[in-house]
Amino acid sequence: MTDQLRARGRGPVVVDRQGVVRRERDWHAADVFWQAGQEDLLVADNQTRMYGEATVEQRGVLSRLAWGSCARPPGSTA
Questions:
Q1: Which among 19, 38, 64, 75 has most CB atoms closer than 10 A?
Q2: Mean of all residue pLDDT scores within the chain
Q3: Dist. CA 54–CA 20, nearest whole Å
C-alpha cells in the first residue's frame, strides 16, 4: 500500500489511537508498531499481536530490528 501511495504522489502516514497523524520520518516516535507497549495502536494485526505476546527480551530485538537507534522497547529509558 505504501508504494501505491507513493506512486500516486501521496505520502504514507500513520494515525494513532489519539488521532495524531505522523509522516513517515516521524513513525518511530509513535507507540504504534513495535515501540514501547504499542499503547497508541489503532488496529492490530498478526505482527503487532506477535510483539504484544513476546517477552520483554524479544520485544527489544523486534523494536531494534524495526527502528534501529530509534527503538524504544518496553523498559527502555530512551
A1: 38
A2: 94
A3: 26
